[in-house]
Amino acid sequence: MKQVKKYDSQPFELVKSSEIAEGIFDLELKNPQLAKITKPGQFVHIAVPGKVLRRPISVCDVNGDTIRIVFRIKGEGTRILSETRVGDKLDLIAPLGNGFEINNDKKYAFIGGGIGAPPMLYLAKSCAKAKESYAILGFANKSAVILENDFNDVVKKTIVTTDDGSYGVHGFVTTALAEIIDEVDEVCACGPTPMLKAVSEICSKNQKPCQVSLEERMGCGIGACLVCACKVKHGGEEEYLHVCKNGPVFKAEEVVWND
Ligand SMILES: Cc1cc2nc3c(=O)[nH]c(=O)nc-3n(C[C@H](O)[C@H](O)[C@H](O)COP(=O)(O)OP(=O)(O)OC[C@H]3O[C@@H](n4cnc5c(N)ncnc54)[C@H](O)[C@@H]3O)c2cc1C
Ligand code: FES
Question: Cα(114) to centroid of ligand 2, in Å?
Answer without folding.
Answer: 24
